[in-house]
Design goal:
The protein has helices at residues 9-20, 35-44; strands at residues 25-32, 55-59, 62-70. The protein has 71 residues and is of the alpha+beta class. The chain has a domain at 24-70. It has a 3-stranded antiparallel beta sheet. A hairpin with a 2-residue loop joins strand 2 (55-59) and strand 3. It starts with 8 loop residues before the first helix and ends with a strand.
């Protein structure tokens, strides 16, 4: 395999997330057709308070919720 000359968009985004999230936390992301579906996915993953998301986005008809949790 060869290393690309220019970093990809994903490489840039991964580097930004690593800088944006504190060292003692990780970012968990859940998706669903609605916000309630995404919160239910978080609930199934044992997130204590699914309503306390740290970021959300609606992309291509899907709701995405992000949670910063202690590592």
């Amino acid at each position: 395999m060869t290393t690309p000359v220019f970093p990809s968009l994903i490489d840039d985004q991964v580097a930004e997330v690593a800088q944006a999230v504190p060292d003692d936390r990780i970012l968990l992301v859940f998706k669903g057709l609605t916000m309630e579906d995404a919160m239910n996915q978080a609930r199934l993953a044992h997130i204590e308070n699914p309503a306390a998301w740290s970021g959300r986005a609606y992309l291509c008809g899907m709701c995405t919720l992000a949670y910063e949790v202690r590592a």
